[in-house]
Amino acid sequence: MIPIARHSALRAVRSQLAPPAFNQSALARLLSTLAVLEQRDGKLQASSLSAIAAAQKLGGPVTAFVAGNGVKGTSAAEAAKIKGLDKVVAVDSEAYEKVRGRYR
């Protein structure tokens, strides 16, 4: 028997006999993904949809994060309608708005 094959066979048997190290909820937390969404004037940017699609390809639960002034009624509501997102975290604050080309 080739040593590599023997090592793989031993690993397979060991994984079946050993109890799982994590319960399902802990494993789900480890496999979750945070997608940071970009919005302008209350509308999600196309790059945000790409970020969500990439996060979904990784598998596991996907949480979206969007921040800005007045996002809870606009961008966050739009993100909540996207299939495949488990949660949308919205931070509504004027601190994210630009003032004369600069951030506060």
From TrEMBL:
Electron transfer flavoprotein alpha/beta-subunit N-terminal domain sequence ranges: 33-98
Main subcellular location: mitochondrion
Subcellular location: Mitochondrion matrix
Pfam families per the UniProt record, alphabetical: ETF
Domain of life: Eukaryota
Assigned protein family: Belongs to the ETF alpha-subunit/FixB family.
Role according to the record: The electron transfer flavoprotein serves as a specific electron acceptor for several dehydrogenases, including five acyl-CoA dehydrogenases, glutaryl-CoA and sarcosine dehydrogenase. It transfers the electrons to the main mitochondrial respiratory chain via ETF-ubiquinone oxidoreductase (ETF dehydrogenase).
Protein name: Probable electron transfer flavoprotein subunit alpha, mitochondrial
Organism in which the protein naturally occurs: Aspergillus oryzae var. brunneus
